[in-house]
Amino acid sequence: MKMWAGRFSKEVDSRVNDFNSSIRFDARMFEQDIAGSMAHAQMLAAQGILAKEDADKIVDGLDTILTDLKSGALAVDPNAEDIHMFVEQVLTERIGVTGKRLHTARSRNDQVALDIRLCLREESEKIVGLLLELTEELTRKAEENLETVMPGYTHLQRAQPITFGHHLMAYAYMLARDVGRVRDAAKRMEELPLGSGALAGTTYPIDRQMTAKALGFLRPTANSLDGVSDRDFCIELAGAISTVMMHLSRLSEEIVLWCSWEFKFIELDDAFATGSSIMPQKKNPDVAELVRGKTGRVYGDLMTLLTMMKGLPLAYNKDMQEDKEAIFDAVDTVKLCLSTMTPMIHTMTVLKANMRAAAAKGFINATDCADYLTKKGVAFRDAYKCTGGLVALCIQKGLTLETLPLEEYQKASPVFQNDIYDAISLETCVKGRTSEGGPSPEAVRVQIEKIRTFLTAEKR
Ligand code: ARG
Predict the structure, then answer these.
(1) Averaged confidence pLDDT in the chain
(2) The pTM is what?
(3) Where residue 321 falls among pLDDT bands split at 50, 70, 90?
(4) Do 128 and 246 reside in the same domain of the chain?
(5) Biggest alpha carbon distance in the chain?
(6) Which amino acid residue places its CA nearest to atom 2 of ligand 1?
(7) Residue 23 within a domain
(8) pLDDT reading at 1 higher than 80
(9) Is residue 439 part of a domain?
């Protein structure tokens, strides 16, 4: 019979047992569950609710369970209802009746709320660590490509010249914001729900400040109903992770494009690409595609959590057991993606000559041509129109702005002199974009330095 079977006269139907059980996905919280129980027992003893010897016996018993679960000497029973019941049951088998005293002044509702917070607090730090590693890698690659001219795009049309370093730093800054978002979500996990009881607190003289301190929380949650029924922190973390995935997916999309014969801007290392079972020539960017694909699944996890919570009356409802599969899936997926992307980026080869060649086509220096006129006193709109005419002429004659003869320039505007060719050389165009945040090597170096300062501060 179940531990809670006091008022029941029948065994639970085996189908209900399987349906109801969460052990398959909450067993991973065993360390957090045991840590919470130890702190709870010690607080009970300090408050005179539990005898000191009993608390010691409980803590020692829990310690042996922890050791055995870690070493594999004790296996989680797949028929148990959940990790909380399993640990308590083993404890009682090991230390006898004293084990039955552990659950005094506690409910599984505040217990599970505690375990998830403890668990996600740790996972958030791991995600931050992986985000910092990828940011660092992108920054390193950017530094190697400060002078690697490539076309910058809008609408996936060649737009203006940038460098590969500048492009990579854009992702570094996205990931830096992600670090902030994950840390911010983790901040809301810093309140201890334990002591909320099932929903209405307890009549025992518990000391929630003590448990909060022992488990590294800032303070206890302020309201017991909210304490047991809040899953905002799961939703916030899933939201932050979804944004991370969105960023990784955009980068993946670019990697897929850059690997194609149409671009050929990069070559993935053989260890980070895969072949085709039929087409011998293929080298596919499967990793990037999978990251892009898994993004949808993480969005699904976020939607699962939001939808699960939207109709729930206070306080705990069993629906909330569904939180774990969704948030753990989001956490595991983002960790997997981050730890595969970093070495993939590290090992890829940048095909600088191809980037440079692509930059030479597509009139990406047209703005610079217009700016040339503007700097010599022509109003920008007139300069824009004049340059547009020159681009049309080049297309008609199969030329580029670099190869268009000076007399054609001068027919369009007498302001053009021989120095136009220097003004529109791609190197000049990139180097001249020294505005803060821009692609010139010195401007990108500033971006790199700022990110490095951020990385040092965040690596606590
Ligand atoms: N396995 C449950 C969960 O994950 C634990 C809490 C159960 N509480 C209850 N009153 N049935 O949510």
Answers:
(1) 96
(2) 0.94
(3) very high
(4) yes
(5) 101
(6) 321
(7) yes
(8) no
(9) yes
pLDDT band of residue 10 (cuts 50, 70, 90) is confident
Residues classed as catalytic: 155, 276
Looking at the domain assignment, is residue 348 inside a domain? yes
CA of 438 to the centre of ligand 1 (A): 53
| Distance between Cα 111 and ligand 1 center (Å) | 9
Verify that 322 and 410 share a domain, yes or no: no
With 0-12 / 13-18 / 19 or more C-beta atoms within 10 angstroms meaning exposed / middle / buried, residue 9 is exposed
Number of domains in the chain: 3
* Nearest ligand 1 atom, CA 22: 1
The protein residue whose alpha carbon is closest to atom 4 in ligand 1 is 321
Helices 441-458/108-144 angle, 10° precision: 150
Do 328 and 229 sit in the same domain of this protein? yes
The domain boundary, picked from 324, 353, 382, lies at 353
Give the C-alpha separation, 104 to 101, whole Å: 6
Q: What is the pLDDT of residue 327?
A: 98
Q: Which residues line ligand 1 (CB under 6 A)?
A: 22, 26, 82, 108-109, 112, 316, 318, 320-321
Instruction: State which of 28, 108, 117, 234 you would mutate to test the pocket of ligand 1, scoring each by most atoms of that ligand within 8 A of its C-beta.
Output: 108
Q: Can you give the pLDDT at residue 211?
A: 98
- Domain check: are 243 and 331 in the same one? yes
CATH (domain of 447) = 1.10.40.30
CA of 81, closest atom in ligand 1: 1
Residue 142: Cβ-neighbour burial (10 angstroms; 0-12, 13-18, 19+)? buried
Cα 58 to middle of ligand 1, angstroms: 22
Last residue of a domain, one of 333, 353, 373: 353
Whether residues 309 and 421 fall in one domain = no
Distance of alpha carbon 460 from alpha carbon 458, whole angstroms: 6
**How do residues 89-130 score in pLDDT, each as one tens digit?**
999 999 999 999 999 999 999 999 999 999 999 999 999 999
Q: 312 with 449, same domain? A: no
In the 8-state DSSP scheme, what is residue 12? Answer: P
Determine the atom of ligand 1 nearest the C-alpha atom of 198.
Answer: 10
108 Cα: distance to centroid of ligand 1 (angstroms): 6
Q: How far is the CA of 88 from the centre of ligand 1 (A)?
A: 14
CA–CA separation, 99 vs 90, rounded Å?
Answer: 9
Domain extent at residue 403: 358-458
What pLDDT digit, counting tens, does each position of 282-308 carry?
Answer: 889 999 999 999 999 999 999 999 999
Residue 213 domain-assigned? no
pLDDT tier at 280, thresholds 50, 70, 90: confident
